[in-house]
Amino acid sequence: MNTTIKFKNFKTDEKLFVIGLTVWIFLQISRLIALQLINDINNDSESEAWMYPAYLDIFSAVLALPLIIVIIKWRGLLTWTATIVYLVISIVDHFGNFTTTSIVGPPSIVEEGMDPLLIPIIQTVVDFVFLILLLLPKYRILFFKIDKE
User: Fold this and answer.
1) For the chain, how long is the longest CA-to-CA vector?
2) Which of 133, 143, 144, 130 is closest to 25 using CA atoms?
3) Fewest CB atoms within 10 Å of the CB: 59, 93, 139, 146?
4) What pLDDT is attached to residue 66?
5) How far is the C-alpha of 119 from the C-alpha of 84, rounded, in Å?
6) What are the 10-residue block averages of pLDDT along the chain, 149 residues in total?
7) Chain centroid to CA 99: how far?
8) Is the CB of residue 87 less than 8 Å from the CB of residue 59?
């Protein structure tokens, strides 16, 4: 029976890549803070311009755990594609944050004295790094390798 290659059979750098990717996606659960932003928008204490980025944050947070599970258990074309789409949507969200911040100012959930662009810039860079790595044959193959048992 042919199955995707087991994690225990990965080389060290391959394990680090999968662990790093899953940890990064897990950290996206913190984007649920956008629920507070949506609440502020609904209470008219925040600009409606923040609604689109907030919804994309919720999307990223809600789909993080299911994506981690499929990356760990069922790697293949669908999982690889879902991971690519997830990262692209996350990057689009960050660009929405940049645009909205430059037009209406930072959201109320940004802490006092904090640069409102710093976190989205860091997130965008990390998303781009994982996106590029997923497109490289060395790491893309982790989703398509077959163990012959």
Assistant:
1) 60
2) 130
3) 146
4) 97
5) 21
6) 64 91 97 94 94 96 97 90 97 95 89 83 97 95 69
7) 19
8) no
